[in-house]
# Entry
Amino acid sequence: MLYFVGTPIGNLKDMSLRAISVLNEVDEIACEDTRHSLGLLNAYDIKKPLVSYHKFNERLSGEKIIEKLKSGKNIAVISDAGMPLISDPGNILVEMLVENNLEFTVVPGACAFVSALVLSGLDSSRFCFLGFLPQKSTERKEFLEKYKNLDMTLIFYSAPHDIKKDIQTIYEVFGDRKAVAVKEITKMHESANRFLLSEGLDGEPKGEFVLLVEGGKCENQNLNLSEKEHIELYILKGYDKKEALKKVAKERGVSKSSLYKYTIEE
# Structure
């Protein structure tokens, strides 16, 4: 069995009892940076062999993990912080596990963007996590164009040297919206900085950021029609005159009586 194990994103006390138990029971632990993970494992007196598994050796290391699983070993995969696969290595390994019909499961834990969504104060009923933006300017804008009209909170990860550039690019594509930059989640200096995209972020950026941006409003192409054309569109779709008036009034935010004149034959 392979276990994808969530680890703390800042506060070591966020390590779950199940995560501790699983890491103590597996034969070895695959991690992004063995030196970094050693600090966490030492804090919980977990003594297991560590193997390197990061984005630069993901396929080669994944093949070795597959062979060990086939030989009967139990292995845990952890990232430097948070959940594996979420803007961290693991997707290629999951594909390989499925291809080889090998069992795997998840041990839930902290996830930075979920915590940031709660801290942001933005709408959490619907959201879209988009991870890190592409590095090239044209690719960044093309990527953002696909999501600018989504009527839900949009969530990005951003490095300190990219955050101001990310905000500026999002502003250029989306226009002005509410935004929140969250950092140091679960740590002593945790903060949620609320601002408008047009204002940008104050101060010198330090630490990794979760950037949350207010959703857009889906454009109703029917509103580009005249009132008469709008009504006729629904009549052509099979609605009777009364139903068509009701739907058009709702879409345009007006009363049915104000539209009635457009249904009278001239």
User: Anything to note?
Assistant: DSSP finds nine helices and ten strands in the chain. Residues 58-70 form the longest helix (13 residues). The longest strand covers residues 127-132.
